[in-house]
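Holo prediction — G3I.
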Amino acid sequence: MKPITKRDALAGAAALAAGLAAALASKPAAAARPAIPLGSAAEIGSYRSDPRYRAALAQYCDVIVPMNDLKWEALRHDRARFDFSGADELVDFALAGGKALRGHTLLWGEALPPWAKTMTTRREAERELVRHIETVVDRYKGRIATWDVVNEAIAFDPKPGEPYRDTIWRRLLGPEHIEIAFRAAARVDPGARLVLNDFNFEEPHPGVAARRQIAIDIIRKLKDKGVPIHGLGMQAHLYAENPIDRHGLLQFMLDLGKLDVDVEITELDVIDWKLPADAMTRDRAAASLVSTYLQTIVEARPPRAIVTWGLSDRYTWINETFPRKDAAAARPLPLDADYKPKLMLHVLQRYRRAAA
Ligand code: G3I
């Protein structure tokens, strides 16, 4: 073995130092996972009345979506004017806190003011829809980065030949109601991410598989016509007693990727009305279900954001819509009714941090 010269030793040390610096500078590819922003819907009444609610939104959220204040019902008490008071308050709060904003929603068959339900002709519906979208998107241009342009357009239980939900928009404008909405939003804010938002994509049922296929078909048609659509919003109101269709959901993610469409989780919560009353039992089941759901999606690629439909069990739509037989309060969200973190929060925060 030949003796090492001083020159060799210096050259070796330099190479070792260079290699170490390069290794420290670059995250190991396998472990690096992009951080996924976490967020929550914000309900204006709780926001105004509960300081702990506001503090939790400020502490835990990278993204805020006004729960109801950008819906027609809140904005359009009468046909002639727009009431942006609630939306402005939540948008200002989010931006002051450096948070991103999602807009929910420009076209939905529900949460319509009475006057909107009286529309009778295609011409009137298209005029009102386009005027609404142009006014609302223009007002928040550059501040609301992502819009649920169309919410819940897919039939709840699709029948052959009828993929769309029966709404006033579908009745008066036909299947093109979706395209009209996306084109109007893109015309006003070409920089916004435009999303088709819907639910019931997660479970192993033929009806759910049909809904997934309809979502793919709608998106493919829009893409083929050059209509700007950037993402599918999956509401993810998960039923604690039902399994996740891991294979079907993963294939769905891959199919969306082939259409160059991202996914965002937009209304995540866990409906636990069929679970035993014990809180820890329910919290463990909910955290496990959310973990399985998110792992399946991330296996294809990371969602753009994970947004829960509220933060604390103190305020949730689920108690009213899915009341438990034992009348115990639902436990659907990352914080309990006293704003204490639950197991679900720890699951979500694993996705919020980029892997070390
Ligand atoms: O603000 C009025 C108040 O002035 C009035 O006194 C009160 C009683 O009539 O109603 C209040 O408005 C209610 C609003 O929530 C704010 O609390 C509406 O009636 C009520 O219909 C509305 O419910 C919301 C529902 O969407 C319909 O817009 C829920 O809070 C909200 O969680 C729910 O969210 C939906 C998503 O938008 C779409 N995906 C499903 C999800 C759950 O249903």
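READOUT: The radius of gyration is 23 Å.
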